[in-house]
Structures are given as C-alpha cells and as structure tokens.
Amino acid sequence: MYNSKKRILSVIVSVVMLISALFVFNSVAVAATEEKTAIISCSDFQPTQTDGGGSTIIKNILSKIEENGIN
Predict the structure, then answer these.
(1) Of the candidates 42, 70, 71, which has an alpha carbon nearest to the alpha carbon of residue 58?
(2) Are the C-beta atoms of residues 15 and 22 closer than 8 Å to each other?
(3) Is 52 left (phi over 0), alpha (psi -120 to 50) or beta?
(4) Arithmetic mean of pLDDT, 31-53
C-alpha cells in the first residue's frame, strides 16, 4: 500500500512539473517576440559653468543613449 501511494505521488509530481515546464517555455517564447524596454533613471545633475548647464548634460546623455541604439 505504501509503495502504491508513493508511486501515485511521484506520477502527480511529474505531471505537475511537465505542465509547469510547458508554461515556462511558452512564456519564454512570448518574451522573445516582444519588444524590449529600456528604463533609464537620472537625477540630481550638478552642472558647472564649464559644462554649459544642465540642458547640455541631458543632451549629452540622450545622444549617448541614441548612439547605443536604445530608443
């Protein structure tokens, strides 16, 4: 009796693992086809007079982002 319960439990666990794997592989395939998103966070710029001001710093950052192909 103990072995049959153990066998049934192992079958149930195996089926659950297979179903979980199918969901994971499906979500990976969907994620590969979706457009990627880049999040860039900046704050507290301390521009000096030689930098040309805060707007120059932000323009430089945005140009570097565009150079790297992040849209």
Answers:
(1) 42
(2) no
(3) left
(4) 68
